[in-house]
Write a structure and sequence with these properties.
- The chain has 114 residues and is an alpha+beta fold.
- It has 5 helices and 4 strands; from the N terminus they run βαβαααββα.
- A 4-stranded mixed beta sheet has the order 2-1-3-4, sandwiched between helices.
- The two termini are 13 Å apart.
């Protein structure tokens, strides 16, 4: 089953969800802002994305700029920052068959879901 880490206030996330809905495949919405992934869940998600933790950060978020931008952080500290402040997690994230992508580009989502 497809999973999507979704923020309903984000246009890219809404577009991705609408696209997935049109595929007539089963999916589960993970409202990550209210059901924050644990440290270990986030670490596993980063592995599925095949990214470094800093590549999943929304660096333009005020909380990142004010609290983390000027610091040198370890990967674990970056993951903890996202766990503590889920708004920092890039979105949407689409998961299928043990793999994941950031679903901002619908062409990539289409290829991923095929």
């Amino acid at each position: 089953m497809i999973q999507i880490y979704h923020n309903p206030r984000c246009g890219k996330s809404r577009n991705c969800l609408a696209f997935i809905d049109q595929t007539n495949q089963e999916y589960e919405i993970i409202p990550y802002l209210t059901e924050t992934p644990s440290f270990s869940e986030l670490k596993e998600l980063i592995e599925k994305l095949n990214l470094q933790p800093n590549e999943l950060i929304r660096t333009k978020e005020k909380i990142w700029i004010e609290n983390y931008k000027e610091k040198t952080l370890t990967n674990d500290e970056i993951i903890q920052a996202m766990t503590d402040n889920p708004i920092l997690i890039e979105r949407p994230i689409v998961i299928k068959d043990g793999k994941a992508i950031i679903g901002r580009d619908l062409d990539k989502v289409a290829s991923f879901l095929d």
